[in-house]
Structure formats: C-alpha cells, structure tokens
# Entry
Amino acid sequence: MGKGAGTTAVASNAVGSYEWRCQNTYKGHKGTVYSLCCVDHLVYSGSDDGTIKLWNTRTYENLYTVDVSSDRSVWALCADDEYLCSGSGNGTITIWNRRVMGMIKQVNAMDTESGIMGVWGLALYGDMLFVGTSSVVKVFSVPDLAYVGDLAGSDGGQSNRVRSIVVSGSVLFVGYNSDGGGSVKMFELFGTDGKHQNLQQAKKVREAEMCNELAKPCQMVGFTVLDTDMFFVSGSNLVFHTTAEQLSTVTTRLPGANDGGHQASVHALCVDQEAALMFSGGHDHDIKVWKMVWCQGGTVGGLQ
# Structure
C-alpha cells in the first residue's frame, strides 16, 4: 500500500480551508475497480478481475477475497447491516450473508421478465433492492430476490443508461449516462416505509442535468453522497463535487494524478458516513482513501 499527498479545497475563509487529502491506497485487484460500498468501517470492492474484496478502513488490511469469476465482472455492490448484494456484467444478482460471506440466493435477471442486460447499480432500502439496468430501475424483494416491478419515473429512455444508484437517508439518487452527458433523478422513499408492497409510494422529486467545472454537460459514470454533498466521476481521473440542492452546479474537484489521485479513469465512489472518509476505485486497479481536513494558514489544523 502506498500513501498519497493529494489535496483539494472544498470550502474556505480568511483563516483556512477544508481540503480532501489522500490518506492511503488499497492495492490488490488485478483489474478495473468498478464498484465500492462501505458499511461498519468496512469497504467492499468489486472488479473486472472477478473478485470481491473486503477492506478494513482503520487498518487498511485486505481481510478476505471472494472469487466470483463465474459471474464475470462485478459492476455493482451495496450493503446494509445484514446483506451484501452484488451485480455482474452478465445480469446476475447475488445476495450474500455479510457476516460469513455465504451466498443466500442468486438470480440471473436476464432470464426473468425484468429483462436486465447487465447490472450497473444497486441500492438497499428496507426490504427492497433497487437495480440499475440499461435504462430503468427495477425493484426486487430482499432476501428472496423476487421481481417486484419498475420504479415509476425512473425510465431514462433509449438514450440514457443507469450507471449508479445511491440511497442517502430516505432519498434514492439515480445517475444516468448518455452520449450527450449525464443526469440525476431523486426519489423520496419515506412513504414506502421500506416495504416493497408500498413501492408505488416512491415519488420522483427532482431531476437535473450534470455539468463539469466549465458548466458543460458531462457524463455520469459513478457517484456517492455524503450528507448533502455529491461527488461524481465522468470518465476521467477527476472527481467532481456538487450538492443535492444545486445538482447542476459543480464547485470543485478532487486532485488529479499529479496530486496523489488515480493514474487512470475513476469508475467507483463510496463514503464512510461516520468517519467522513471517501473511497475511489479506478482503471489503475487502485482504491484511494480520502479524508477531509481543516487547513489553517496553509497547514493542517485538525480533522473536522
């Protein structure tokens, strides 16, 4: 594992600024890191090397590796206190007992009425698993993985492909990608009470086109949400920042390759909400660990 020294300011005043600093690098994957998720100070990573790896965010150890190469690339991951869910390029959805990493059930969604052609995004909310497909979000019940139906309002049409899904609080964020740029839709799930029988109570509350720091449309390859802050990647080694209130306004970005960031395009992001850590995975096979620090007068004055 190597350590980086990259920083970027995300807020400032007369006496200092908040900056994201690269704390460490997880190494071990032999392919592009396409998916990341974090729970209980543990990070799960999925790659096109056909493995899922588990990392301790405090000791930086690789605790174990699961070979799922029969499912091809691991394109999507999500987890809660009990389950880990993985989605693959061949349309397979797998639900695991997170404590012992034992498989509970696997569904080849390409063979069901849902018609999934590869799984790019996953998110858990109550007993519902939201699944990103080519253009729409499908919903499956947990843990039996029975197909419930489509999320109303999530169909992006033929030109928009779902690339990432995140739940923050009771809000579901869905990121879409197209040749002309990217967009985000927000759905309020509070009315569902976390039960798949109440799926019809999910409501789309916002939609916005995404832009880069030059206010030009940009693709939406992956993103994560920390409180009201959104971080997203668009096919380069840059990580952009905006807020849930101003989705289309990009204010800054994490450092590039020369500042301790990735040496190739970034494909996955996730956050440890409690520790205020962010993780990024890329085509360089690495996973970077980022932490926000307060810099006073040009020096680090203490972690916030």
About this structure: Confidence is low (pLDDT under 50) at residues 1-14, 299-304. The domain at 11-303 is CATH 2.130.10.10 (Methylamine Dehydrogenase; Chain H). The chain has one domain: 11-303. The radius of gyration is 18 Å.
